[in-house]
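Sequence of adenylate kinase (Cymbomonas tetramitiformis).
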Amino acid sequence: MDLTDVPVEQLMKEIERRLECQNKPEKRMILLGPPGSGKGTQSPIIKKDHCLCHLATGDMLRAAVAAKTPLGIKAKETMESGALVGDDLVVGIIEEAVKKPECKNGFILDGFPRTVPQAQMLDKMLAKKGQAIDKVLNFDVPDEVLVERVTGRWIHAGSGRSYHTKFAPPKVHGIDDLTGEPLMQRKDDNAETLKSRLAAFHAQTTPVINYYKDKTQHDFCPLDSVFRSFQAE
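Predicted 3D structure, token representation.
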């Protein structure tokens, strides 16, 4: 990689960051929370503070398929057949991802596990490496707050800039501040779709929350396992 055009100050900051990361303890974290609960906002902050890699299962699946890894090829065949990608494939792709250098200090898992069997498979995979999940952060936000957050979101398609009708409105309603182009809403950012997604989330993920709470209470997780619940009014 040619670094001749990179400012010296930027290079020094990157060196300082890498030196700081060498002294950070390893952490393996799971973020649990429904759509719109703030996981996407908090994960980059946690990632930077603890020098972790951020693992989102959807992104990892797409990357594995694009890279044509053995697991990616299997996942593509499964998806093209119209079937759901099995838990064993997803856990295998996670196992591949955590071997990357950027995951040396640990990882944040976002969007997985969603069921107790997935959590158990993840635990077994990590146990083979002598590792375990250290912290589970549960973003506990009332459904009515989530509906307000999500249905008020507007996006500038070209840049990904986001706005909110109440919390971060554009200068002109429906118009991007920088380009003057119209804003859009994602197809699933409506109350009916969100309520359906929330019902599915609560049905699937409440047992996962209880699973990790139980492991913490009975010291089944080594290291400094903590289950934390963040509540928003």
